[in-house]
């Protein structure tokens, strides 16, 4: 049995810059595909490709690249791995005070300051924003000195004005504020990540948390605003979405490969999460690709 703690990732600004901006070719950034957190705010742009993302207690699937803003100390897994098939990935990281503690308090920065507060729950942006910002994100990776800084502020300002986004974690989610909670819940998240294809007993995860089953259930709901069963089902359904979209497997095979041992329960749960049946989802996804 594996036991994991979230890794506190150390982030160093680029030479000659007050923040970090890295561009990775396909598969180059798979080392971050583990549960980690850092005090720096992180903007991740994935060009092309599809895969699973886990930001806090939110597990979801992206189909044509991604644009995510992750707040300070919000635990997450890397967006890409060897199966993502993205063209490239850009990762921008900066601390809240990288321009001095008073910078975000300036009247001109109020919108961006509010954006960074929202990012504590994780923000995912829609297709329109991804397309609109691609050229500026690309320019950021090539720029240097003051130009680089100005482009970053422009990007953040654009993100602060758009309505084309979703908050990833419910407002009650406060895992990022408590290190003890962070460590404990991350053991559970990693256990689910590694074992979701098997049956997971409540007694097992309660024991990992050094709690009784009733105490664990109350604790998990308080931290994530989800029951443990909801969380595991969400992880399994997200995996099934990826398989339905990318693999020539039968729906029955997808069901069992995603950790469900009952086909009718899989269908029922899938419909609850997606508002459509697995066959409808696959058909619609195939039509979009075509």
Q: Estimate percent helicity.
A: 40-55%
CATH classification, class level of the largest domain: Mainly Beta
Strand content: 15-25%
- Unreliable stretches covering 5 or more consecutive residues: 1-6
Mean pLDDT across every amino acid position:
85
Rg of Cα set: 20 Å
Strand order of the largest sheet: 2-8-4-7-9-10
Protein described:
Residues 186-284 form the HTH araC/xylS-type domain. Keywords: DNA-binding, Transcription, Transcription regulation. GO terms for molecular function: DNA-binding transcription factor activity; sequence-specific DNA binding. The structure is a single chain. The chain has 290 residues and is α+β, with helices and mostly antiparallel strands. The protein has 2 domains: 7-167, Jelly Rolls (Sandwich), CATH 2.60.120.10; 196-289, Arc Repressor Mutant, subunit A, CATH 1.10.10. It contains 10 helices and 10 strands. It has helices at 110-118, 127-142, 145-161, 179-195, 202-208, 213-224, 228-246, 251-257, 263-274, 278-289, and strands spanning 7-8, 20-25, 36-37, 41-47, 51-55, 58-62, 66-70, 88-94, 123-125, 165-167. The protein has a 6-stranded antiparallel sheet with strand order 2-8-4-7-9-10, with helices on one face. A two-stranded parallel sheet has the order 1-3. Strand 5 (51-55) and strand 6 form a beta hairpin. Helix 1 packs across helix 3 (145-161), helix 2 (127-142) packs antiparallel against helix 3 and helix 5 (202-208) crosses helix 6. The longest helix is centred in the last third of the chain and has 19 residues, at 228-246. It is globular, with a radius of gyration of 20 Å. The chain starts with 6 loop residues before the first strand and ends with a helix. The model is unreliable at 1-6 (pLDDT under 50).
């Amino acid at each position: 049995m594996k036991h994991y703690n979230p890794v506190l990732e150390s982030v160093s600004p680029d030479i000659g810059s007050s923040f970090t901006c890295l561009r990775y070719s396909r598969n180059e950034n798979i080392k971050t595909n583990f549960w980690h957190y850092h005090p720096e705010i992180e903007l991740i742009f994935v060009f092309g490709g599809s895969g699973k993302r886990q930001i806090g207690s939110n597990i979801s699937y992206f189909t044509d690249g991604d644009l995510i803003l992750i707040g300070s100390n919000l635990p997450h897994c890397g967006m890409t791995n060897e199966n993502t098939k993205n063209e490239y990935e850009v990762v921008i990281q900066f601390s809240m005070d990288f321009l001095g503690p008073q910078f975000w308090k300036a009247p001109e920065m109020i919108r961006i300051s509010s954006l960074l507060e929202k990012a504590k729950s994780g923000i995912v942006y829609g297709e329109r924003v991804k397309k609109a910002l691609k050229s500026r994100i690309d320019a950021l990776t090539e720029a240097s000195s003051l130009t680089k800084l100005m482009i970053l502020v422009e990007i953040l300002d654009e993100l602060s004005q758009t309505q084309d986004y979703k908050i990833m974690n419910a407002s009650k989610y406060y895992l990022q504020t408590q290190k003890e909670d962070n460590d404990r819940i991350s053991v559970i998240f990693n256990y689910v990540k590694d074992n979701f294809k098997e049956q997971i007993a409540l007694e097992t995860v309660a024991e990992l948390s050094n709690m009784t089953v009733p105490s664990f259930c109350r604790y998990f709901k308080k931290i994530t605003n989800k029951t443990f069963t909801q969380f595991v089902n969400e992880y399994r359904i997200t995996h099934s979405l990826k398989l339905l979209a990318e693999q020539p497997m039968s729906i029955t095979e997808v069901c069992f490969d995603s950790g469900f041992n009952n086909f009718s329960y899989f269908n029922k749960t899938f419909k609850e999460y997606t508002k459509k049946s697995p066959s409808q989802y696959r058909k619609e996804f195939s039509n979009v690709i075509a």
